[in-house]
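Weekly modeling sync, notes
Attendees: AB, CL, MP (scribe)

Item 1: holo prediction request
CL wants a bound-state model with calcium ion before deciding which constructs to order. AB pointed out that an apo prediction alone won't tell us much about the pocket. Agreed to run with the ligand included and paste results into these notes for async review.

Input as submitted:
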Amino acid sequence: MRQLFLALFTLFFLMGCSDGGGLIIDSTPDQYQEEPQYSEPYTPENGDTEPQTDPLSDYYPQQDETYTPVIEEPSVPSPQISPVEIPPFRDFNSLCGYEPLCYQQWYLAKNDEFYYYNDIDKFAGINAGDTYDKYSGSGVVVAIIDDALDIYHSEFSDRVIATYNMVDGSSDVMPQTRDDIHGTEIAGIIASSFNKRGVVGIATDVKIIFIKIGAYNSESDYIEAFQKADELGADIICNSWGTYHASDGLKDAINNLAQNGRNGKGTIIIFAAGNDGKYMGNDESAIPSVLGVGASNKSNDRTSYSNFGDELDILAPGGDIAGIATTDISGSLGATSNDYVPYDDYNKFLGTSAAAPIVTGAIALLLEANPNLSRTQVFSIIRNSADKIGDVNYDYSGHNEYYGYGKLNLYNAIRMATQ
Ligand SMILES: [Ca+2]
Ligand SMILES: [Ca+2]
């Protein structure tokens, strides 16, 4: 077995301990193995009072002013004033609707109180803006290549359109053990719905193809997995795994899809950069026709574990102290005994494995907004709309080897895609 960290980059993170059987060849950095350090995570029910002082009070400077004057005579139109201007960083209430765990999805929606109690930088999220009013990934198909998927999960079961098991050639991709947890967590980030349960995904109407791979698959199996995703109609292929030894054959297959897939516009292939804090080297995420995704944290900075290199394209929240709330295998199996993994769970989900599906969901919205975008145009938009975070210099092209082209800014990307 080659050096495939099938447990897919962050399985070692999510397990919180290294009991993952033979699949796991890497270990969780020590600083992330501890229990969360904050004492009282905020929940809406626990009777917490408002913060004494609100460090974010400058955050929506015009919000009150914007809404108060609406008492103006409704009969007098003001044509020169545009309709309510939505702040670039949107209030979480209007985005979250009735999803009970959305308040802790700091990577998606800014919640003043939650941010305050968890000391989260006000720009740490992806800036969803008003995107959710307009786009939901409708008409877009995402393939996830990973360990297993709970296809019956209430957040997305109605949108799983095809499954394939590369290990045994069947269509059964259901988790077999409590360790087969990773794919369900990824799917939830991308595709959870507004169903008054749990979390909300980035692309709530996207269709899902799931292709199961295992540590005993061969190089030709990986190639076949991509071909399968293409045959089944994938517009985007999300990969939170890597080998550090991308073969020429796999590179050819990926390049071919990136060039000719999606009816010649190019399939968008996304890979997590990996969690070893090292140079990406010959990893799949470093293939130039692949979008390589690193992880940012609640401080709106790069995480120390995130791999780096000339081919790193973009950062997105992957978390370290604060994890990425998402779906878990339904019921007792998985990270938790219920259907979700909270941001502060002992087995919280974090890593570049969580960042890649965030970018995947964002691109699903881009392709809905403008289906004609070529693969190279999508890459260009994602790179050029990114926030230049971190106290570092970016080169003439806007790139830094540790930060890529910066951190995903969904609102800006959508604007750029629809101009
Ligand atoms: Ca939900
Ligand atoms: Ca569970």
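Recorded for review: The pocket of calcium ion (ligand 2) is lined by residues 328-329, 331-334, 336-339 (CB under 6 Å).
Action items: CL to compare against the apo run; MP to circulate these notes.
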